TrEMBL record:
<dbReference type="InterPro" id="IPR034457">
    <property type="entry name" value="Organic_radical-activating"/>
</dbReference>
<keyword id="KW-0411">Iron-sulfur</keyword>
<dbReference type="GO" id="GO:0016829">
    <property type="term" value="F:lyase activity"/>
</dbReference>
<keyword id="KW-0456">Lyase</keyword>
<keyword id="KW-0963">Cytoplasm</keyword>
<protein>
    <recommendedName>
        <fullName>Pyruvate formate-lyase-activating enzyme</fullName>
        <ecNumber>1.97.1.4</ecNumber>
    </recommendedName>
</protein>
<keyword id="KW-0560">Oxidoreductase</keyword>
<keyword id="KW-0408">Iron</keyword>
<dbReference type="GO" id="GO:0051539">
    <property type="term" value="F:4 iron, 4 sulfur cluster binding"/>
</dbReference>
<dbReference type="GO" id="GO:0046872">
    <property type="term" value="F:metal ion binding"/>
</dbReference>
<dbReference type="InterPro" id="IPR013785">
    <property type="entry name" value="Aldolase_TIM"/>
</dbReference>
<dbReference type="Pfam" id="PF04055">
    <property type="entry name" value="Radical_SAM"/>
</dbReference>
<dbReference type="InterPro" id="IPR007197">
    <property type="entry name" value="rSAM"/>
</dbReference>
<keyword id="KW-0004">4Fe-4S</keyword>
<dbReference type="InterPro" id="IPR058240">
    <property type="entry name" value="rSAM_sf"/>
</dbReference>
<keyword id="KW-0479">Metal-binding</keyword>
<dbReference type="InterPro" id="IPR006638">
    <property type="entry name" value="Elp3/MiaA/NifB-like_rSAM"/>
</dbReference>
Amino acid sequence: MIKGNIHSIETMGLVDGPGIRVVVFFQGCALRCTFCHNPDTWATSGGESITPVELVNKIERYKTYFKNSGGGVTFSGGEPLLQPDFLIEVLKLCRERGIHTTIDTAGVGAGRYQEILKYVDLILFDVKHYNPKEYSEITGREVKESLKFLEIAQEMNIKMWIRHVVMPGVTDTVEDMQNLADFIKELKNVEKIELLPYHLLGTNKYEILNIKYKLEGMPAMDKAKAKELEKLLIELVKK
């Protein structure tokens, strides 16, 4: 019997896709992003071991709430693509039960992307960086797997929201926005673009896990500036 490892479940998510959503955080991630605020999701082991039916039954309990708001379920993490067999079965059950599905992903998983995306209504795609060298410095991995996933998503014409963490002094210039806009312009079906301001929430987890925090001393991104940059980015993409 297929089982998955789930870190946690949020039942009234308002920022991870359209409407009110159940957000399921998968355990395990192949990236080690410098700005990550959930290092407790990195390890593939741990969390709650659960079957696809058990998980979808939990999700369906809240169907009244998210159905009326145009919501559904968002699979986040960690990285949901790292548990493809489990994810596919969960997505199939959601499709059978009329539940809108979104995956929040960086596109670095364990393959079977075409089969996964057959049952996905929306992708929240995390652009770590538009430049391959900077991408590697931020994530600890090469960008090619992420681009491979993006290519398949484009071929399958899946709707997409773009997300990007903006860091003060690192990715917060007009030039950064222009380069990011050029990257986004190459993608189809982008319905929404969001800049997420770098924050310090979760940094205490690194101490607890005895992991060195690589951005020690970096201040939180000014939210007002991040919003201005987001407006600029959207305008540049439209040009």
